[in-house]
Amino acid sequence: MTIPLSRFAATILTGATALGLAAPAAAQLSPAEQTMMSTVEAGFEDDVALLEAITNVNSGTHNHQGVREVGQMLIPAFEGLGFEVEWIDQDHVGRAGHLFATHEAGNDSTRMLLIGHIDTVFEPDSPFQQFVRDGDVATGPGVVDDKGGIVVILSALRAMEAAATLDGANIIVALTGDEEDVGDPIEEARADLIEAGRWADVALGFEGLSVMDGQDMGVVARRSSNSWTLTTTGRTGHSSGIFSEGAGYGAIYEMARILDAFREELPEENLTYNVGFLAGGTPATLGEDELSASTIGKTNIIPDSAVARGDLRTLTQEQTDRAVAAMQAIVDANLPGTDAELEFEFRYPPMAPTEGNSALLARLNAINADMGLGEMGIFPPARRGAADISFVAPYADGLAGMGPDGSGSHAVGESADLRSFTRQAQRAAILMSRLAGEEPARD
Prior knowledge:
Oligomer: single chain
Radius of gyration: 24 Å
CATH architecture of the largest domain: 3-Layer(aba) Sandwich
CATH superfamily of the largest domain: Zn peptidases
Shape: elongated
CATH topology of the largest domain: Aminopeptidase
Mean pLDDT: 93
Strand content: 15-25%
Number of helices: 10
Low-confidence stretches: 1-26
Strand order of the largest sheet: 1-2-6-3-7-17
CATH class of the largest domain: Alpha Beta
């Protein structure tokens, strides 16, 4: 991806200080904002029709043809709004590609990165393939995660165009084609997104809206998603020698010691470290897919090997570093006659809570007040999974959960509340328009 140099000249911004945004006093909606409100409402059925069209094209991450087809369906919509559109091929990381759309205003106003994704978890062999509407509820693969989010983006941009606020807006829309299963190496798969994040002042993630106790919530933080592999080894021999000086404790007791020490010694708020599977015996072998293991053994043989895999989720990079060091220290305190090795795979970084992110939510809550909507509290980050916005969190203030409300994501029967598209697009359009009218201070 190539971003015009005139738009990429700012220094990298920290999430806590990038804009210094403060919530303004509540005010009535301006005439332009009233136009945005009515434009979104008037376009409701067209938005539903677009959602149906792109939902009915399978775009499971590994269905590269389908991902590209949905991307091609979206290109005219962005070009019609004056965006420069680029399809970024990702064959080199084993994925279909990304759709990036750029709107350059030629001014120094707030630079906004809008993030969504084209792919879904539903591959062509899934029984769940079709959009179905029942009044204001739609079911279908990706209606919330994240084809619904894409529709919200386009609805908001059309409203801005109708209100003449899009002209002054500097925006990059980044729709990845592999959010559900990122290409490898991940550094290359996310290079274009990170480049756009370095350019941006603000990043808005358009995955599903978070709702708690019937109240819309703001997402200012999301946890990381990483994995680990633990391998233990021991001296094999007759079981009658277990625990002796010559035989030691064997691989399975060493594995049990480590996992139980994780449980006892690691707990802290917002940190989890699940064990997904394990196997032990003589031998125990991790499968090539790293999602399975095989083993064989006898009750009268001390096991020579064990393997386990799990995940590690953290709220900040500091918490990641702290947990990794603590886990390694536990692993290194081997039982007699055993050894252990711990390997980490760092995939999605955390979107840490920052003052800048909270300030963005305050701005959105001022808009909620002007729209006559309730205030959005902060959604507990431990209840949201990792997302693409996390890759740009070190560089730009961020707000996630800007997509529609729904339920059952990643499962057959995934559904969306169609009326939530309206308020989410209205919120987004007004927020982006207000930000587009400002020139943030940059270091």
